[in-house]
Amino acid sequence: MIKYSLFLLFTPVVLFSQANSEHHEIKKYISEVSSDSLKSYIHQLVSFNTRHTLSSIDDSGKGIGAARNWVLKKFGEYAKNSQGRMEVYLQQQDIQPDGKRVDQVTNLGNSIAYLKGTDPNDKRIFLISGHLDSRVTDVMDRKSFAPGANDDGSGVSAVIEAARILSKSKFPASIVFVAFSGEEQSLLGSKLLAEKAKKENMQIEAVLNNDMIGNAKAGETNEVNDHTLRVFSEGLPFADLDKKASGIRNLGLENDSESRQLARYIKEIAEKYVKDLDVKLIYRNDRFLRGGDHSSFVNLGFPSVRLTEYYENYDHQHQDVRTENKKQYGDLPEFIDYHYLKKNVAANIAVLASLASAASKPERVEIEVKELTNSTTLHWEKPKSGNPIGYYVLVRETDSPVWQKKIFTKELSAKIPLSKDNYIFAVQTVNQTGDLSVPVIPVIAK
């Protein structure tokens, strides 16, 4: 446990308490999340019979084409609230058979709404996603009834509800809302967007991928957990790991990738604003034998996490809809816990609003190591965008999963009476309304 007196050379400020207070606009946003709206979205998605990526794109009432057009229509309705700042479009590409999970030329389409930030100099983008496509047991079966209520109607409902509520906002940074296609056919839609983002040097600073966030009951035991949301994050960064591995090992930062910093941020903000919600950090990129759309972004170096329910029920996941021995199988809407789903959606909205409201991260965060001392000196530069009232220096013991102490300063440097050998440090910005940037781990000062 961290124990020390603050004999630091900081100027105490009244704004310290204000920076810790809740942002009332964010509280307003999450109060608008509606279980009825979420239920209506999911039932509409189920009504398309199947949303398999290889299903019809021309049928007006059934298949993936009808589903993606409906999502675009909903985005278009909400764009009217944005004073012209929300652009709605279908990112599409014809993909060829791959001999694996695509056996015909297929028009792949991602339904996207791009809410532009109000600051033209702020290039940050925060992305929320779910996958639109659904499947039954046979991953190539494009005709059978594949309701996909939870996998991933729940994630898509979060994206649509976030677009509805946040379309009225005025954040300096931008938010992208996307319903991917092709997830079940090997993450095709997310790869398409991630590759475009990489090619165009888009400044995507966080991807919140929601995949199955509406089921509260375990399949084997029937145990219910309607208060825990798992967040999966990679530890060692997949992108350019060979170049980074030595430095990570030398500094003991195996638990401090950008995606893991994002996961810790989600836990802090979601638990602050959403009642009766416990965010469980899972120190893995994803579950065994499964994958998610966040991995397409992780693999290209974008901070990305997967948000998912605490329990998975495999009777209602990737199953043909049927009744056997009086047991109902299939991903049907009656197995969604809408109260639980509402909390998980509220968590997403609180995090997105906090990220997009905050000043950008501090620049050139460095730690001094040129002298043998039992104190630690950090320094940094102002963020590229936004007007912070100050900065938090974050501290945790090396074996702690979360930050244990925050120290406020208005300065661009700090001397902490703790040994750099025993603790992990980071710095984040804080603005007038208490919104925080994602923490930045320092590099060695040259």
From TrEMBL:
Pfam family, one: Peptidase_M28
Protein name: Peptidase M28
Fibronectin type-III domain span: 361-446
Keywords, alphabetical: Hydrolase, Metalloprotease, Protease, Secreted
GO molecular function: metalloexopeptidase activity
Statement: the UniProt record of this protein carries the keyword Protein transport: no
One CC-aspect GO term: extracellular region
Predominant cellular place of this UniProt entry's protein: secreted
GO biological process, one term: proteolysis
Domain of life (superkingdom): Bacteria
UniProt key word Secreted: yes
Subcellular location(s) of the protein: Secreted
